[in-house]
Structure formats: C-alpha cells, structure tokens
C-alpha cells in the first residue's frame, strides 16, 4: 500500500480564479471522498465518487466539482474562488465492496489560500 | 444544524492522566462512530471505532464508551502521553456505499510532561 497522496501541498490563488487539486488513492480503493477543513474546524463533506460516478454530495455549490479516474486518482475543481474557500482540502479513499462504509484513509491535504 | 457535537474544544492533561472527550449525535440512523486523530500538517487517521450494538470497545490505551439511549459516545485515553497531543475528532456515518463521515468540531489535546 502506498497511502493517499495529495498534490500540491500548498497553493495560493487569487479570488475569482480556478483551481484543481489532485489525489492519488491506494490501488483498489474505488471510493473517494473530498472534504474541506476550515481552520479550527472538523472536515466538511464535499462529495464522493464511486467507480467514477458522483454518488453523494454535501452542502457545497456547483462550482465545486470533481472527477475520478480508473487509475484510482481523482481531482477536485473549484471555480470562481472566494476568500472563504481558503481551507485544507482532504481526500479520503476506501475499498467499497457494496457493504459497510468503513475504513477511510485520508491524505495529508492541500492547504489552499485565496487572496 | 450540527449533527455531531463534540466537547471540550480543548483539553490539557498531565502525563499519565486520563483524557476524556465527549460527543453527542442527533440522527439515530447513524450506525458507525469512528474517532480520528490529527497531527498538525497531516490528515485525520482512524484511531478506533464502534457500532451502536456495542457499549464499549477497547484498543490498547484507547476506549470508546457508547450510550445509545442518550445518543452519546466518548473517547477515553488512559495513561495519556505527550505523544498523544493532537486534535481528536469524533464522527458518525451511515452504513452502505453512499454514506459520508460527519465530523465533530474537534478537541485539541495537550498532554503535559
């Protein structure tokens, strides 16, 4: 197992710009979720992908979008960045055989700062 | 509406003492309650988890106590060590492939030597 790798680790963008964050999951982990963690808060669920299809979404606007690829990598795209988008973005993956929703492995996150 | 409420926000414990963090949930459909440990600059790591049909689960120095009727669960860290200093999050989720983790706001634990 190689864990969950996220890139970049840190990023500074200007308000109104677009950003793409990347995640490489462990082999066989067919479910990936993205979370936003504001400073001093718990992670908030953005959305989840299962076998390249979005199958769950939290209370985030459509300018937050994602993709999952067959090679267990995924992307989080955020358009029209706002100052409040500044946060740590976490990718989490697990192997889902259709049973229990357990055993997420989190990456170390991408720290996004919007100025 | 916050579905998982966690307290205290911060906790200072002496080395060798017991650290206790509490969480309360609202949705009785939750069926899995994990605790995560997060060090600065790292993502959350699963520490221990419990299902609602069990009242207590122990793994080493870490114990979860679960009270289904009160909709509360807690993490106990016995013989707390400075290396336990981290932020701890309780979470809850539903079973099945479409669930997601709902986290508390976290407790920053400092263990003093």
Tell me how many strands of chain A there are: 11
Structural class category of chain A: mainly beta
What share of the residues of chain B lie within helices?
under 10%
Quickly count the helices of chain A. Answer: 0
What is the typical, i.e. mean, pLDDT of chain A? 91
Share of β-strand residues of chain A: over 45%
Uncertain regions of chain A: pLDDT < 50 for 5+ in a row? none
Number of strands of chain B: 11
Instruction: Give me the strand/helix succession of chain A.
Output: EEEEEEEEEEE
SS-derived structural category of chain B: mainly beta
As a whole number of angstroms, the C-alpha radius of gyration of chain B is 14 Å
**Distance linking N and C termini of chain A:** 37 Å
What's the main sheet of chain B like? 6 strands, mixed
Written as H for each helix and E for each strand, in order along the chain, the element string of chain B is EEEEEEEEEEE
Q: How much β-strand is present in the residues of chain B?
A: over 45%
Distance between the termini of chain B: 38 Å
Uncertain runs of chain B with pLDDT below 50, 5 residues or more? none
Most extensive interface: A-B, 30 and 27 residues
Q: Biggest β-sheet of chain A, characterized? A: 7 strands, mixed
Principal-axis shape of chain A equals globular
Task: Outline the structure in words.
- The complex is a heterodimer of chains A (about 120) and B (about 110).
- Chain A has about 120 residues and is mostly beta strands.
- Helix content of chain A is about 0%, strand content about 50%.
- Chain A has no helices and 11 strands.
- Chain A has strands at about 5, 10-15, 20-25, 30-35, 45-50, 55, 65-70, 75-80, 85-95, 105, 110-115.
- In chain A, a hairpin with a 2-residue loop joins β5 and β6.
- The N and C termini of chain A lie far apart (about 35 Å).
- In chain A, about 35% of the residues are buried.
- The mean pLDDT of chain A is about 90.
- With about 110 residues, chain B is mostly beta strands.
- Chain B is built from no helices and 11 strands.
- In chain B, the strands form 2 sheets. In chain B, strands 2, 4, 5, 9, 10 and 11 form a 6-stranded mixed sheet that branches.
- Chain B is globular, with a radius of gyration of 14 Å.
- The N and C termini of chain B lie far apart (about 40 Å).
- In chain B, about 35% of the residues are buried.
- The mean pLDDT of chain B is about 90.
- Classes of the chains: A mainly beta (about 120), B mainly beta (about 110).
- At the A-B interface, β4, β5 and β10 of A face β5 and β10 of B.
